[in-house]
Amino acid sequence: MLLRSTKITRDFPNRKTAIVRYPIVLGLSDGTVLRRIQNALAIKNVFDSTLEEYQQDSWLTDFDYKVNYNQNYLLDITFVQSGVGAYPDTQTKHFLINLRSGLVIKATDSFNPDSLATLAKMANQMLKTETRERIKAAQVDKDTDADQKISLKDQLEQLTFTVENLDDFSVSDKGVTFLYDAGFPHVIQALQPDGRYFFSYAELRPYIKRNGPLGIFK
Predict the structure, then answer these.
(1) Does residue 149 sit in the same domain as residue 98?
(2) Which of 38, 70, 104 is the endpoint of a domain?
(3) Which residues make beta-bridge pairs with 76?
């Protein structure tokens, strides 16, 4: 499958120019599959705003994407939008698409149903390790007052990676990275976990569906 970039530069109201770059999907002979992918990756379906809505809002500065993987009938792509309102902000949205069906891939498509709880537990262990490191770093940070340290510790300790979080994962030739967004408010966003938990295909082999989209790696 081929991806072609389209770049649009527009003068947005009351502010400098915003740059929008998004993919045009080409090269699939099955029209139904092609339309599914095009619909899934349409601007409106990424961050829930159309190009026209972006033009009416002065917040956006950049809209871009990165193809992480495009082999073995798997398209892994991440969108990023940045803007300035009350404060600068950046948001990401990730898609993993089955190029045979044109559908977004879920954990139940890729892993054996009886393994999902185990996979969530494995990812949660990595999350807990990361949160402990964040708490430890915050405790020695002289720029953070005592009340903030307590609040941050409470928020970090409450984070849990569950089966529902398994649906957002990225693929490569080496393995799978489960993605986790803690959703911290902007004022402490820099202190939230990175939320990227990698497992090699050797580790995941017992859990991968043989006839699923990741079956080639089993």
Answers:
(1) no
(2) 104
(3) 69, 96
Residue 98 burial class via C-beta count within 10 angstroms: exposed 0-12, middle 13-18, buried 19 and up? buried
- Determine the Cα–Cα distance for residues 124 and 212; give it in Å rounded to an integer: 24
Residues 6 and 99 grouped into a single domain? yes
Reading phi first (left if > 0) and then psi (alpha if -120 to 50, else beta), residue 49 is in beta
What is the largest distance, in Å, between two alpha-carbon atoms of the chain? 61
CB 179 within 8 A of CB 164: no
Q: Are 82 and 113 contained in the same domain?
A: no
pLDDT tens-digit profile of 95-141?
A: 999 999 999 999 999 999 999 999 999 999 999 999 998 888 877 56
How buried is 201 (Cβ within 10 angstroms: 0-12 exposed, 13-18 middle, 19+ buried)?
A: middle
Q: What is the pTM of this model?
A: 0.88
Residue 103 has what DSSP assignment? P
Burial label, 142 (beta-carbon count in 10 A; 0-12, 13-18, 19+): exposed
Tens-place pLDDT, residues 163-186: 999 999 999 999 999 999 998 776
| Cα–Cα distance measured from residue 186 to residue 79, given in angstroms and rounded to the nearest whole number | 19
Domain that holds residue 64: 2-104
Q: Does one domain contain both 24 and 124?
A: no
